[in-house]
Structure formats: C-alpha cells, structure tokens
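Need residues for this backbone.
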C-alpha cells in the first residue's frame, strides 16, 4: 500500500479526496479540454495568448524534457490558462460544489468565503511530457496572497501515478521551510496514486514537482487555485475570467465579462475598419500575454 494515498492535509501538506467528481463531470470536462487543446493547436489567438507551447518550453529548458525534440512540438500545448474565457462550460464545471467545500474545510472557513483565483490545464502527454521542477506555490510571483490562505486542487482527467509523471510531493515539507529543493533525499519523495474523479489538494508551502511522462498513458491535470475573500495579495497579474469571485457570483461575473468582451470586439472591428494602421501597431507591439506559470 502506497502511504501517500492516505496522507492528511494538515500533517503531510497534501491529501487525496476520492471519487469527488462523477463520470458525467469527467466526460464533459474531457470534451471541454479537447476543445481548448484544439483551439491552441489551430492558433486561436486567445488560446495562444494564454498558453505555453510544449515545443518552445522543451527548447528553452531541455533538461526538463530530456531526449525530446521541441522543434516538432511547437503547436502542442503544455499549459493553457484562462479556461473560462476559452470555453464557457468550465464555469459550470469549476462551480462543482465539492471543489469549493473541500477547499473551505481545508482553509477552515465557510464555502461562501472562498474565491476562485485562476485555473489552468497542465499536460504531460504520453511519451513526451516534461518534468515539473520542485517548488512551493506560495513562492509564485504571479498570483499569490500575502498569507497561506489559499491552496491548489489538482484534478487529473486520467489516473495519475509515478509511472505517467504524476505529481510528486515531499510529505511534511509545508512545516519545514529549511528543506532545500536542491538537496532532496530520494526517500523523502512520495507519489500519490490519484484516479480520474479524485482530487489532490496541495498546501501552499508543500514542496512538489514531478517526473517526465515517458509512459504510453496521457496525463492531463486541471489545476485550480482558490483563496479566501478579502486576503491581500503580494503578487497579482492580470485577472483571468472569473477571478476573485465566489461560487455564487462566478456565473454572473463571467456573463458580464463576456458581454463586455463582445462589445469590445464590435468596437475594435469598427475602429480597425476606420484606422487600419492600428493593426500594424498591434502586430508590432503585441498584446500583453500571461502564462500564470512558474512550472
Ligand atoms: O501538474 C503537476 O503535476 C503539478 C502542478 C503544480 O505543481 C502546480 O500547479 O503548482
């Protein structure tokens, strides 16, 4: 029996919650994920703007994806963010009450005090998925509250284990900040077995990472960061669709934001028809992008 499978959040800094999500939730989420992967592969601008290419990543950090030729994988997504903008089905999918109640229990508050920070898809495709380096989420410099009042839920869409690059953790490292990610003892590392439908909760101070996926099994994980309403932020990049909203307000916030986005699109097409030189400026200077990742 793998002891990581029965770890407890407060003592070990992570916990697997079993059979939280139904087969129909998984079915619908896999469909929505296939749609955003397709958007990325076909160069849809919003998917590109919020994504990281597996090929570019592998070329920039070959040590993280040894033996893989990044130049052949430029159109393959590694990470895709701002999922609620790319496919509205994620609004309902991520509103699934157990995700918010697990978070509320672990952060010792009411579900109504929990807010969504952001979500992304992190992929380790079969045979070519990269390693994720050791890190603590409370050290990120893009979306991080001042205190520990937040966490990440990792939701695999296929069973994940050590074999297919499943998330690796150092149990108890959330309580021992002196543990050094560069000198980790192999025996200190654990790999929980997380099945599709289970949810892995990660404490913001827990050291975690993961091996490349060289198996013949896919490994797609949805990562959602939640926090407590009212917390002050050390770092806060551009807010993605739905950010900082409670579950009760997520649908309304996303409908309002999409109405604004369509008004903006109409305004821009009228403006660009009258001032075509703006297109040149946009192409030259680019639009601000974000990737929400230190992975
Ligand atoms: O995808 C994984 O296995 C880990 C993702 C992760 O480390 C993170 O989001 O902080």
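Answer:
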């Amino acid at each position: 029996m793998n002891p990581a499978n029965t770890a407890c959040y407060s003592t070990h800094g992570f916990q697997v919650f079993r059979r939280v999500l139904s087969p129909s939730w998984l079915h619908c989420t896999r469909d929505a994920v296939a749609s955003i992967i397709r958007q990325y592969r076909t160069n849809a601008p919003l998917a590109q703007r919020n994504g990281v290419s597996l090929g570019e990543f592998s070329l920039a950090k070959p040590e993280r994806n040894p033996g893989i030729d990044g130049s052949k994988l430029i159109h393959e997504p590694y990470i895709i963010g701002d999922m609620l903008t790319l496919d509205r089905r994620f609004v309902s999918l991520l509103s699934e009450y157990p995700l918010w109640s697990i978070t509320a229990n672990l952060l010792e508050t009411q579900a109504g005090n929990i807010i969504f920070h952001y979500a992304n898809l992190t992929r380790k495709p079969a045979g070519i998925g990269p390693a994720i380096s050791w890190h603590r989420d409370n050290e990120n410099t893009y979306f991080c509250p001042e205190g520990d009042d937040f966490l990440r839920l990792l939701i695999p869409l296929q069973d994940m284990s050590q074999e297919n690059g499943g998330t690796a953790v150092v149990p108890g490292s959330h309580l021992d900040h002196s543990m050094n990610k560069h000198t980790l003892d192999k025996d200190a590392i654990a790999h929980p077995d997380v099945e599709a439908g289970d949810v892995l909760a990660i404490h913001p101070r827990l050291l975690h990472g993961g091996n490349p996926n060289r198996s013949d099994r896919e490994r797609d994980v949805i990562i959602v960061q939640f926090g407590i309403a009212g917390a002050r932020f050390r770092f806060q990049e551009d807010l993605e669709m739905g950010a900082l909203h409670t579950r009760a307000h997520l649908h309304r916030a996303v409908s309002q934001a999409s109405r604004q986005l369509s008004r903006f699109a109409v305004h821009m097409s009228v403006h660009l028809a009258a001032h075509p030189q703006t297109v040149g400026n946009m192409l030259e200077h680019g639009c601000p992008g974000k990737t929400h990742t230190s992975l």
